[in-house]
Write a structure and sequence with these properties.
alpha/beta, Nucleotidyltransferase, domain 5, 8 helices, 5 strands
Length: 222
């Protein structure tokens, strides 16, 4: 009920009515796997420098139907971030701004649900620019793959069970390949693979086995 009300309010306050398509349901059984690389990890000060989105239809990853862009940010790239994704100031100096890229990205996404790994961070980074462009944040539904994984592996775990939600650990449990991590397109592709793998396990009622070891710490939640 609350989400429905918020969507109604967002739709009413949309500053550019040409983006009403964001509120229309996407094609049946389609979603978008999305990932961003950034200048740092501060949601308020840092900026996106790379974004990728890949379409999923049914049980197929449509890698050929994808969106990717390098972005020129409005702030410097931190040395720590460069060590992670390898993008330097000279690599983005001639790239378009997020404001120039965003309209095409939104048209690619449409009203489809967005799938991600710790997607709240990516959305926070995107929504700064979305709000500047159309006056609201993205109204799309979201799917967090680490929550699905947590439910399938740790949902029935006793208190104190040690929890590992690392990206590489999820891929390993699902017997999926680890590509070039911290490249936005590769991460979006791996996230799409994780999503389909987890969705299949959940549909079949299959849980992910846990190693039998003595619990060492509490975990606050998924």
């Amino acid at each position: 009920m609350l989400r429905w009300l918020m969507r109604r309010m967002d739709k009413a306050t949309l500053s550019d009515r040409s983006y009403l398509f964001l509120f229309e349901p996407g094609p049946e059984d389609e979603c978008i796997s999305i990932d961003c690389e950034t200048t740092g990890l501060d949601r308020w000060r840092d900026e996106i420098i790379s974004v990728a989105a890949i379409r999923i239809r049914g049980n197929q990853i449509l890698a050929s139907e994808s969106f990717r862009a390098i972005i020129r940010p409005r702030c410097a790239i931190s040395p720590e971030a460069i060590k992670i994704h390898g993008l330097r100031e000279q690599d983005v100096a001639q790239a378009p701004t997020m404001g120039e890229v965003l309209p095409d990205l939104l048209r690619f996404i449409g009203g489809r649900p967005l799938v991600g790994y710790y997607i709240d961070f990516d959305l926070a980074m995107l929504n700064k620019h979305v709000a500047e462009l159309i006056g609201i944040e993205l109204p799309n539904k979201t799917v967090e793959v680490s929550n699905i994984y947590y439910g399938l592996k740790y949902g029935d775990a006793p208190p104190g069970t040690q929890v590992d939600l690392k990206f590489a650990s999820i891929l390993r449990d699902l017997k999926l390949p680890l590509f070039n991590q911290h490249d936005a397109w590769s991460d979006a592709l791996m996230t799409a693979m994780i999503y389909l793998g987890l969705r299949d396990l959940k549909a079949r009622g299959v849980r992910i086995p846990r190693p039998r070891f003595k619990p060492t710490q509490d975990y606050p939640g998924g």
